[in-house]
Design goal:
This protein is of the alpha+beta class and about 250 residues long. The protein contains 5 helices and 10 strands, in the order βββααββαββαββαβ. It has a 4-stranded antiparallel β-sheet with strand order 2-6-4-5, covered by helices on one side.
Length: about 250
């Protein structure tokens, strides 16, 4: 089943569809600067240009999803605005995914996809997602996801996949130091920004489609990995902020 759902009126952009599927992909090409887009009005003229939600087992009405998310709309925005500071290059897409049981209780909330590259923002979004409440779904347990887009004020330059892999290949073993801090991911994407003189200036994570991910163990690993990656010295992007992504476990 499928239904429409309008985006909450928040200052960042909530993307065009909710879905119950999707996985991490290789780094996208350099995106154009993103400008603020107004959310759809309450009167959509009978069209279906709002958001959609699909469950893989049961079904959650789009209105029920919005009822759970809308009270936290301003807090979701604040997760981004409170962390940006001087990091004007931060921007990208984050897909939050929930799994709920037959009673509507959240059994898992995760960052299913992200190229934002800012763990403090992603962790803030996760904490809010885990605290939301939803009504009982129709037909049993279900899952659904909502993609958001956050607008950067300054552009960054995506390195190619080959360039990114070459930059980080000698550093990956450093992440083994985090194995005892939490649970290392079996399917994850790491996004990194590189500034002047090759200094890592921001790091973020997505967990792929891992079901039943232990929140405490994941957060502990990500906290450690962010600290380790932030010490890496990578090639100097020379006058710009570079952005790269790589997958874990490394291929």
């Amino acid at each position: 089943m499928r239904g429409s759902m309008r985006a909450p009126a928040v200052a960042f952009v909530m993307l065009g569809a909710l879905s119950a599927c999707g996985g991490s992909a290789k780094p996208p090409p350099a995106p154009p600067p993103v400008t603020h887009v107004e959310p759809p009005s309450d009167d959509d003229g009978g069209g279906s240009d709002g958001l959609e939600v699909t469950g893989t087992r049961g079904h959650m009405d789009p209105e029920a999803v919005q009822a759970g998310v809308q009270p936290h709309a301003s807090e979701l925005e604040t997760c981004f605005t409170s962390q940006v500071g001087k990091h004007r290059y931060l921007g990208g897409k984050v897909e939050l995914k929930w799994q709920v049981d037959a009673t509507g209780a959240i059994t898992s909330a995760q960052i299913a996809q992200s190229d934002l590259g800012a763990w403090p923002v992603e962790k803030c979004l996760l904490d809010l997602a885990r605290a939301m409440t939803f009504t009982k779904p129709k037909g049993g347990p279900t899952d659904f996801s909502i993609p958001f887009e956050f607008s950067g004020k300054q552009s960054s330059l995506w390195w190619s996949e080959d360039a990114g892999q070459a930059a980080i290949k000698n550093h990956l073993k450093d992440l083994a130091k985090c194995d005892g801090k939490g649970t290392p991911p079996t399917d994850a994407t790491v996004t990194v920004y590189v500034g002047a003189r090759g200094k890592v200036v921001s790091v973020g994570f997505a967990t792929g489609q891992e079901a039943g991910l232990d929140a405490t163990a994941w957060d502990a690993w990500a906290d450690c990995a962010e600290k380790r990656i932030s010490t890496w010295q990578l090639p100097d992007p020379r006058g710009t902020v570079a952005k790269l992504a790589f997958h874990l476990p490394a291929q």
